[in-house]
Amino acid sequence: MKLKILTYTILFVSILSLIGLMFWKQEYKFLQPTPIPENLKTIHKGDTLDIPFLRTFQKNTYIHFYNYDCPCSRFNIKEFQAMVRKYDDQIKFIAVLQTEDNDAKAIKKFKKKYDLGIETLLDPKGEIAHTLGVYSTPQAVILKGNTLFYKGNYNKARFCLSKNTRFAELALAALLNNEPSPSFPAIAEIAYGCELPINSTPKKRFYNLF
Hints:
The chain is 38% helix and 15% strand. It is of the alpha/beta class.
């Protein structure tokens, strides 16, 4: 009986340790910058961009990059929702879904789940992300006409709790107030989060589920 209890105890502790190790590796991963792909298109603040899917839009544009399989995207969505509700009448919001599934159901799922009432686009091949120099989620891109006003993180951490480092919202407020794009520390532009599905391996996507 004692041997049986000892065996179950060891098994239970081993399972807990394995789960703990997996979550620790995941947390450590998101503390590190997202790996930069070799084919990254580098664009800078103030660059004029040729973006075919935006040619019919007249207003300034806020583009949100989202990935269902990325825990950072899921943590971030509430902050994005709050920004849409607050600024929707002042700027055009677009959600770009990073998914390998080229299916309209993904758009319906996003709209039903978050009910934002904004333009939603699929980017299964990462073409929109590549055009805008984005290689991680969640990321924000703010365009003043066809000029890059801001590209980078929402906050200094994925939980988006710090009010003083809400980089994306501070940049948006500056645009709407006709102010220059703010000068942020490097952490605002160094991508943290999940690689795009088009750039990641099946093994990496498995870890992103936790």
